[in-house]
Amino acid sequence: MSPTLPDALAVMVDIFHEYASKDGNAHSLNKGEFKEMINAQFPHVFENSTDKEGIQKLMIDLDSDKSGEIDFSEYMTFLASLAVVCNEYLLESMKGFQDKNSRKH
Amino acid sequence: MSPTLPDALAVMVDIFHEYASKDGNAHSLNKGEFKEMINAQFPHVFENSTDKEGIQKLMIDLDSDKSGEIDFSEYMTFLASLAVVCNEYLLESMKGFQDKNSRKH
Q1: What is the value of ipTM here, to two decimals?
Q2: Does residue A53 have a pLDDT over 90?
Q3: B4 CA: distance to closest CA in chain A (Å)
Q4: Is there a contact between B6 and A41 (Cβ–Cβ < 8 Å)?
């Protein structure tokens, strides 16, 4: 059976807790936990040394209440933004595919 | 291997397109597509006849730009809110479990 939306939500909740609970506080990701999560889950996004600053900058941008940590709601805002980008990319690819196909006729 | 965050994001994007593209416009869920998606993905949430109004009300609440349809970003806001509720429920359960365990000592 294909994975459902509740399955996908459970993965997001579980992964947050896997990293957030490392310091004993399961409510938020501290700087180390956030870096560890990003490197493990999105290994190709921040690969080179320049991008170490990228993770730091990303964390500052996401930390909307300026608590110094990423809480669950900030983490979900991040994932929702990533999904929007993936979706736009997919729509563009579909459009390109359709344009290509319509030119054939 | 456990599912990753990119896997979970792909499920969300795929399911949106599965339902949104039924009317030929893959950019948003119309009323029928939204109902079909909710009933298929969350079958126990809106089960009885009173809740048919619930789906309608939910759709109006989510449709923040009042376009009459749910676009991808509104869909992600919905999923993010659901995830926050699931997470709070999980944290409460963990707390209950810890309290129960600490009373044993």
Answers
A1: 0.87
A2: no
A3: 6
A4: yes
